[in-house]
Amino acid sequence: xxxxxxxxxxxxxxxxxxxxxRTLLAGCKEISFRVSQGALAGVLGSTLSENVQxxxxxxxxxxxxxILKDTLRESGYVKAISSEEEDDVVPxxxxxxxxxxxxxxxxxxxTEINSLxxxxxxxxxxxxxxxxxxxxxxxxxxxxxxxxxxxLYGPSTMLAxxxxxxTHLYTLDKTHGGFLLTHPNIQVPEQTKEFAINAxxxxxxxxxxxxxxxxxxxxxxxxxxxxxxxxxxxxxxxxIHRVLCRGGIFMYPFDKRNPSIPGKLRxxxxxxxxxxxxxxxxxxxxxxxxRIMEVMPSEIHQxxxxxxxxxxxxxxxxxxxxxxx
Length: 325
Ligand code: AHG
Ligand code: MN
Ligand code: MN
Ligand code: MN
What we know:
The protein is α+β, with helices and mostly antiparallel strands. The protein has 7 helices and 15 strands. Strand 9 and strand 10 form a beta hairpin. The longest helix is centred in the first third of the chain and has 23 residues, at 15-37. Bound molecules: 2,5-anhydro-1,6-di-O-phosphono-D-glucitol (AHG) and manganese (II) ion (MN) (3 copies). One manganese (II) ion is lined by residues 55, 84, 108. It comes from Alteromonas aquimaris.
């Protein structure tokens, strides 16, 4: 089976990017090990602190953030990082060629129940003009990403990666510590009968999503003419992995509760990297009003509504938005 290095070379990734990705993944392997120790290593439970988004930080949020921050800072390849668990941009090496944004631990509410969690990341070039502590260089649309991916800490530890030449899935071989290419160039089925949304928020959804989900629930009696199944992992990384593997549509739509917060998921380190992986696998990634990867961020923790998945299903969902434009 092919190793990560050879696939990255085949996809034409420059040496320094390959070295950066390997460094980042060394950090993820350490997180994978800590996560697998669970209660034995005393890593479960919450801290007394909150992150910049007002969420109580789990111990594993803080530990994973520290591991990735230390690893990337020491590497020399990175000019600055932005993270869900850091209020501001963290300056690294002023000579570094890349910027990295990450969600160190996605699905933190799953840590207590030994369920799916992961790490999500995106990488862009660092402009030469930028100072290492200047957040403005992070405010680029997702179309500027040079690589993105996630590591899923599930029954096996898996990596999904793209450098813009397809989306590949790798499995961590824990006997020698390498990621092996197990699912090259995956393609998301264009049609699906599966959707993922947190239905407890239904009363807060906008009209297009109300109507769209209503029609999915109507099954063969409704205009979509088929019976749908629903899944919700409560970790985007788990839901998106399922959609990449067997199709589906994942939604965290706009929420009327707070019009100044246009959705729950964060653009730089959740929506954009997943959008890049989804598009490279033949799927779509939209906010309801445009392509996620074309959204121009105005701050590093910006949130966006997200609709991702099987091409024909996302297009069907978007037709409900078009009706209400
Ligand atoms: P995080 O644990 O990094 O804060 O992200 C959690 C996100 C995402 O992974 C998931 O899809 C969503 O929150 C779950 O939201 P609900 O609590 O509404 O289920
Ligand atoms: Mn969080
Ligand atoms: Mn997350
Ligand atoms: Mn997180």
